[in-house]
């Protein structure tokens, strides 16, 4: 894979490695996510998923390798500059402000950008939050809070969205709702990179699954193919057995 040959609307990670002191967290990780594709990144504990998320989003700089978005090399860009270019992110831990309403959070998300109130209202409708616009976020269910965070990430119209464990802590019903939102509302419209441990979510939302193990890509392909791979099964069974 070469950045000069990539699709202009793709998200590309090329040969990315990360070393902390003497510890190699990632080794030559490469992948390309097309516009409209949902790519799941999975792996056992310690596989390098958190490091990958932080490098992709700009929190960490890779030791080597490059990252590009829409034909632009963003390897050295800050998280804020990446967001302006079209890469949005949600976090594993909910970070909303108690006492503020849903609508106020949406206004906060745009931070003076040229996004109309109508556009924000339409997005709340799309995400199933319109009836909750004037509710304070601390009165919302965990599932509604996670969906609000996704709506905030989408309000500026990103081309790619990075979801870090979006169903963590959710009930079965809330998880099913998130599956529908990703599969029905986002898939095919923007690129989505989802870090996820729930294999039901992975199989129902993703086009391609990439498996990380010991900081490297161990497998990549359609969900049915990857998740039936004996090596992938062993990674998870071995990890489960050691805990």
From TrEMBL:
CDD domains: ABC_Mj1267_LivG_branched. Residues 11-239 form the ABC transporter domain. One of its GO terms (cellular component) is plasma membrane. Keywords: ATP-binding, Nucleotide-binding, Transport. SMART domains: AAA. The keyword Transport applies. InterPro entries: AAA+_ATPase, ABC_AA/LPS_Transport, ABC_transporter-like_ATP-bd, ABC_transporter-like_CS, P-loop_NTPase. One of its GO terms (molecular function) is ATP binding. Belongs to the ABC transporter superfamily. This is ABC transporter ATP-binding protein.
């Amino acid at each position: 894979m070469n950045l000069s040959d990539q699709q202009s609307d793709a998200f590309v990670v090329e040969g990315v490695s990360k070393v902390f002191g003497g510890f190699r967290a990632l080794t030559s990780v490469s992948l390309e996510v097309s516009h409209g594709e949902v790519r799941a990144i999975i792996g056992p504990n310690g596989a390098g998923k958190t490091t990958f998320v932080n490098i992709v989003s700009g929190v960490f700089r890779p030791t080597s390798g490059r990252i590009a978005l829409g034909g632009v090399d963003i390897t050295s860009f800050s998280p804020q500059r990446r967001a302006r270019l079209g890469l949005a992110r949600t976090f594993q831990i909910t970070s909303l402000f108690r006492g503020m309403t849903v609508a106020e959070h949406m206004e906060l998300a745009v931070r003076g950008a040229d996004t109309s109130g109508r556009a924000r209202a339409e997005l709340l409708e799309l995400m199933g939050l319109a009836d909750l616009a004037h509710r304070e976020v601390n009165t919302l269910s965990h599932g509604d809070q996670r969906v609000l965070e996704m709506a905030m990430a989408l309000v500026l119209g990103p081309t790619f969205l990075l979801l870090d464990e979006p169903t963590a802590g959710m009930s079965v019903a809330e998880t099913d709702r998130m599956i529908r939102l990703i599969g029905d509302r986002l898939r095919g419209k923007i690129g989505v990179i989802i870090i996820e441990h729930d294999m039901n979510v992975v199989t129902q939302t993703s086009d391609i699954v990439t498996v990380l193990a010991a900081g490297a890509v161990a497998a990549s392909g359609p969900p049915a193919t990857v998740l039936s791979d004996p090596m992938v099964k062993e990674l998870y069974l071995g990890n489960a057995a050691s805990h």
